[in-house]
Design a protein that fits this description.
This protein is α+β, with helices and mostly antiparallel strands. The protein is built from 26 helices and eleven strands. 56% of the residues lie in helices and 9% in strands.
């Protein structure tokens, strides 16, 4: 037999082209940072230190950005404080990363492992992204045609040519980061890929914590009846949109991937917390599409797993799957797991309907015992099973029923005691060959099942039994089939308890929010709102008027301006314009041309010190050609919903030039910050279809402390933000494909559609769905496309960057070599 050839060491030579590319990227990033710092209005020293630190980290650890960037992405922007919507802190993050990675590539290109990488550079990917770059370039040039040097109003709002740059930078940054993502995975394989999965999980966690803070600070953690919809720290939602929804759709499947692949208990615990918080954030958006999105993601993951098990690989394929921690499942086991998931979801529904939160918690506790007990009861003697059933019924009759009838809340105490006894007996031995006596296990499980029904009956009424009993029966039937079948449906593992609890938590939150008054009212309006959306799509499509626009679109960032000018006069929303007169800057605030309500006016706003409270003193100059009511408010507000306000209305007379007003707010008081702290915001708006010039704004607190900066607008739009709390249609096409068609024409629409569909197909192919992360990348893209049915998505640069990164993974992911098996929480090197 011929001797095997010695393993070759990875090739150490790096082509000059990569060094040149790195140098060019670093130079471009440095120039971009200089321009960014020139415009940045907040603390330059702090920003400079953080940018330098980011570049240094990427220079020393070239894969660190894969985890760090998505982790801070949901909260890094400070637009409500800076007032800048076109150039934000996330731009500096990407530029600092590109600077560090470019320098590392130019000076000391990293060396890889030499193993087969779990990503492949495919001709189709290059072609599609090349066409996408061409589309963005053409439409970007069209959108930027009206540039006027030195025009300070370019930074105000979405109707200026600078909006083309704002939209384009999402594509530019995404395309600039893709080569470094690809090279990192090519060099370090599963370590780099796992780092990206970890980063997206951290991003899910940070966005969810922000949403949790918002819910606790404003409507209340468990207040599901209020019409408050979370926006977390996605400032882009100040004129509507689904930035939070889209980010959750992108990142939630990666949290599930991290939960499945994590090996260390701490890593698994973190992934579990991130997914549970993500589920809470997802449901408290109260966005109807997110419920459908969750279903689509679940179906795609299940479909991928089912296909992977239905045609199992032979020999090397099985070895590869086991090497990366994804042992192949048989079709029987896969279908069983899917059916058990349906059982849990149905049980959550029945338990919540019959027993509220208490019934839901009792059902979850029952499932937590039934899962490991099923493994212990398989193949048990019939005599012991019958004895255990009788024992469980006797315990319920002798202990639980008297406690429910004669002790206040006694059934809750008995349920807790019974559950703790069962958990102490069953959970520690989940993977132990020395199982407890089957009769004892079935007795404790049966007792817990009856207690669950009694909890539901005690919380509600005896009439709830017809719903509680089927919930119990679903669990009992599943355990019965597991016990009596020739082959077990599942093999309990301690690590799977995290997944089980996660599924129960998601199911519980789904049923709790879906049954709330507010969500029920939103579902009842679905048909009416859907018809309005279809009419809006048609109006948006009608903006494209000739063959050239049909091919390449109106231009990047042109949708808001084009929609504004195409509206009839009675449909024109409010407006803001930064103007100059004899060297003096002032703001023109226009009211909407239709009457809807207090929440629909456009507001010019500024964040004020968080400890401000009470009323406020004001002084400002106003001018208008027509009479107008000008509203001044000081409220607790995150982004869209105000509460605890002090406000004052100025009746502005017409035709008298600049008029100065001063006084004190007369109605209401700004409440305290509370816990968690709530931001405070000063706003000015016009409640009439009139344009009012505003200048020299001075707002003082009760203690005569100045609350606003740049009241004379001599620094342009610095610190001044704006919002439209409820009127969102004029700024968004509300459909990703419609938005692409309007701004990039058929070219952009076809290219992006082919890329998304190509990625879905690629991830479902037999040789690619074998990768343990393939189902979750598939679900991420599917969730994004679902949200894109009702939102533009790609008009938000922060989202576009990661849409392109995940899309690139979807087009290139492949099964790795066995020796590359690593979990998502690898070492910090390289």
């Amino acid at each position: 037999m011929a001797a095997s050839a010695p393993a070759q060491r990875p090739h150490r030579h790096r082509p000059v082209g990569r060094r040149v590319y790195g140098a060019l990227i670093a130079t471009a990033a440095l120039c971009g940072l200089v321009a960014w710092f020139w415009l940045y209005p907040l603390n330059l020293w702090m920003a400079g230190a953080l940018v330098g630190l980011g570049s240094l980290i990427c220079l020393l650890y070239p894969t660190a950005w894969l985890a760090l960037v998505p982790a801070i992405w949901p909260f890094v922007d400070l637009a409500p404080w800076s007032g800048h919507i076109h150039f934000t802190e996330s731009d500096a993050v990407v530029l600092s990363v590109l600077l560090g990675l470019g320098l590392r590539e130019a000076l000391a290109p990293p060396h890889g492992t030499g193993e087969k990488a779990p990503i492949k550079l495919r001709l189709m990917s290059l072609a599609l992204f090349g066409l996408l770059l061409a589309s963005v370039t053409i439409s970007g040039m069209i959108g930027f045609q009206a540039w006027q040097e030195g025009d300070g109003s370019l930074l105000m709002g979405y109707g200026t040519p600078l909006n083309a740059v704002r939209v384009a930078k999402g594509y530019i940054f995404g395309l600039a980061l893709i080569p470094f993502l690809h090279m990192a995975i090519r060099r370090w394989g599963e370590v780099a890929l796992g780092r990206f999965v970890l980063g997206m999980t951290l991003g899910l966690f940070s966005a969810s914590v922000a949403a949790l803070w918002e819910r606790m600070a404003f409507p209340g953690l468990l207040n599901f009846s209020s019409d408050y919809r979370s926006s977390a720290l996605f400032w882009e939602m100040h004129v509507g949109g689904a930035a939070l929804d889209a980010w959750l759709a992108l990142s939630f499947p990666f949290g599930l991937a991290c939960l499945q692949q994590a090996r260390h208990p701490l890593a698994r615990t973190f992934a579990f917390v991130a997914v549970c918080l993500g589920g809470y954030a997802l449901f408290t958006t109260f966005s109807r599409i997110m419920y459908l999105c969750l279903g689509v993601m679940a179906v795609l993951i299940a479909l991928s797993m089912l296909l992977r098990s239905w045609r199992p690989w032979q020999g090397q394929r099985i070895a590869e799957a086991q090497a990366v921690g994804s042992a192949p499942l048989t079709p029987r086991n896969t279908l069983a797991l899917l059916l058990l998931s349906v059982v849990m979801l149905g049980g959550c529904f029945l338990a919540q309907r019959s027993g509220g939160y208490r019934g839901l918690a009792a059902f979850a506790g029952l499932v937590m015992l039934a899962y490991p007990a099923g493994g212990m009861l398989h193949g048990a003697p019939g005599r012991q099973l019958v004895g255990g059933v009788v024992g469980g019924v006797l315990l319920a009759l002798a202990v639980s029923l008297p406690a429910m009838l004669y002790l206040p809340k006694g059934i809750y105490i008995i349920y807790g005691i019974g559950w703790l006894l069962g958990a102490a007996m069953i959970l520690p031995r989940i993977e132990d060959r020395r199982h407890p006596t089957p009769g004892l296990v079935i007795a404790l499980l049966g007792w817990a099942a009856i207690n669950m029904v009694l909890v539901c009956i005690y919380w509600g009424k005896p009439e709830n039994a017809p719903l509680a009993i089927p919930a119990m029966a679903l669990v009992v039937a599943s355990v019965g089939v597991q016990t009596l079948s020739s082959a077990p449906l599942w093999q309990p593992r301690r690590k799977d308890l995290y997944t089980l609890v996660t599924m129960l938590a998601i199911g519980g939150m789904l049923m709790s929010t879906l049954g709330s008054y507010y969500m029920s009212s939103r579902l009842s309006q679905a048909n009416t709102d859907g018809q309005g959306r279809l009419e809006h799509y048609q109006r948006s499509i009608d903006l494209v008027r000739d063959d050239t626009q049909n091919l390449v679109g109106l231009g990047l960032g042109k949708y808001p301006a084009a929609f504004f000018w195409a509206l009839p006069d009675e449909g024109v929303p409010g407006s803001l314009r930064l103007l100059e007169e004899e060297g003096n800057h002032y703001m023109q605030v226009g009211g909407s041309h239709y009457a809807r309500g207090f929440g629909e006016m456009i507001r010019l706003s500024q964040r004020v010190p968080i400890d401000a409270s009470g009323g406020f003193h004001y002084r400002l100059r106003l001018r208008s050609s027509k009479p107008a009511p000008v509203m001044l408010t000081l409220c607790r507000k995150n982004l869209l919903y105000a509460e605890d306000c002090a406000h004052h209305t100025i009746d502005l007379k017409s035709g008298e030039g600049w008029q100065q007003f001063e006084g004190k707010s007369g109605v209401g008081n700004l409440g305290g910050a509370g816990w968690p702290a709530r931001p405070a915001v000063f706003s000015i708006g016009v409640d009439k279809a009139v344009e009012v010039d505003v200048d020299d704004i001075e707002i003082l607190g009760e203690d005569l402390r100045p609350l606003v900066d740049n009241g004379g607008f001599q620094r342009g739009i610095d610190f001044w933000f704006f919002s439209s709390d409820h009127d969102h249609m004029p700024w968004h096409a509300k459909n990703m494909l419609v938005h692409l068609y309007v701004e990039q024409g058929l070219l952009g629409l076809v290219v992006m559609s082919l890329a998304l569909l190509g990625a879905l197909r690629h991830l479902l192919l037999a040789e690619n769905r074998a990768h343990p992360y393939a189902p979750f990348v598939l679900a991420s893209l599917g969730g994004l496309m679902t949200v894109g049915m009702v939102d533009s998505v790609l008009d938000i640069p922060r989202l576009t960057v990661f849409v392109l990164l995940v899309l690139w993974l979807g087009l290139g992911l492949r099964q790795p070599a066995p020796r590359q098996a690593r979990g998502p929480l690898g070492t910090l090197q390289p």
